[in-house]
Amino acid sequence: MTTLLGKTAFITGAALGIGRASAIRLARQGAALCLVDNQADRLLSLKEEIESLQGEVMTVTADVTDSNAVMDAFAQFAAWGKSLDILFSNAGVAGLLTTIEDMPEEEWDRIMAVNLKGAFLTVKHAIPLMKKKGGNVILTSSIHGNRIFNSYGMTVYSTSKAGLTAFAKAAALELARYKIRVNVICPGAIDTTINDCLVRSDALSEVIIPVEYPEGKYPFGVGKADQIADLVAFLASEQASYISGTEIYIDGARSLI
Ligand code: NAP
């Protein structure tokens, strides 16, 4: 396992799912962690778990759509006195699945704000802390933003995740002069709680073209957050030192069907 000793990572959407699994993985590899999420109690339980692994950790409760809150999170990080080596901008929501015609404007704005603007704000305010020494940024997109569009009702989710891929590529070029690598991971179906708050509108029945696979659901089944954490740890390591501006699909071939 590659060591991340002496490195510090800042992770958003850290309290659950992919963020949580990645936090534990990076801590096991020796990284100190700043964990950001909008749920204070969940952050506390993760902090205790990581401290039980002898990991060094601070937490900040913040909503990534709130510019002041994100700035304050980085100010608290800076006061901690560590260098910012790894940024995993991962907070995201799925929200309402419905037709374009039926989509409330406020819901469109909410999903875009968390998934796309949240990443922009996080990267924007990380740059001043990262640019002297270099580092690396990992963004969480989705196969729904790049390779698969047959999950009806995900227009806003897909649009936000496609935006992240474009953002990552533009950022990779812009930040190369500071030795900051930027990559974007595109998971398939991963077993987390993200779909617990997902609402499927009846309006979808009007537009769905039914697709049935002959047997099974996905070639390698549903993924685990730990499998995404493996990729995050790899991209955060020196073994990925020449990888920047790349989207990486991690979906067990699901999006090729
Ligand atoms: P998850 O289990 O719901 O964890 C996401 C965490 O981010 C939750 O603690 C969530 O809190 C937090 N969060 C949401 N909005 C936030 C905000 N505005 N500010 C700060 N924290 C916020 O989801 P996950 O499955 O691990 O997803 C992580 C990322 O992977 C997301 O960007 C998602 O789009 C992407 N992804 C997931 C899958 C999948 O199948 N799971 C596939 C492709 C991509 P709340 O519970 O309060 O929302």
Largest sheet: 7 strands, parallel
Cofactors, ions and other ligands in the entry:
NADP nicotinamide-adenine-dinucleotide phosphate
- Which geometry do the CA atoms define? globular
Q: By CATH's scheme, which homologous superfamily applies?
A: NAD(P)-binding Rossmann-like Domain
Strand content: 15-25%
CATH architecture: 3-Layer(aba) Sandwich
H/E element order? EHEHEHEEHEHEEEEHE
Give the low-confidence spans. Answer: none
Order of adjacent strands in the largest pleated sheet: 3-2-1-4-6-7-11
Helix content: 25-40%
Number of strands: 11
Structural class: alpha/beta
Please write the CATH class name. Alpha Beta
- The CATH topology corresponds to Rossmann fold
Please explain how this structure is put together.
It is a single chain. This protein is an alpha/beta fold and 257 residues long. The chain has a single domain (8-256), classed as NAD(P)-binding Rossmann-like Domain (Rossmann fold). It has helices at residues 17-28, 40-52, 67-80, 105-130, 155-175, 225-236, and strands at 8-12, 32-37, 57-61, 86-89, 96-97, 135-140, 180-187, 190-191, 199-200, 223-224, 246-250. Strand 2, helix 2 (40-52) and strand 3 form a beta-alpha-beta unit. The chain starts with 7 loop residues before the first strand and ends in a 7-residue tail after the last strand. The mean pLDDT is 95. NADP nicotinamide-adenine-dinucleotide phosphate (NAP) binds at residues 12-13, 15-19, 37-39, 63-65, 90-93, 114, 118, 140, 142, 187, 189-190, 192-194.
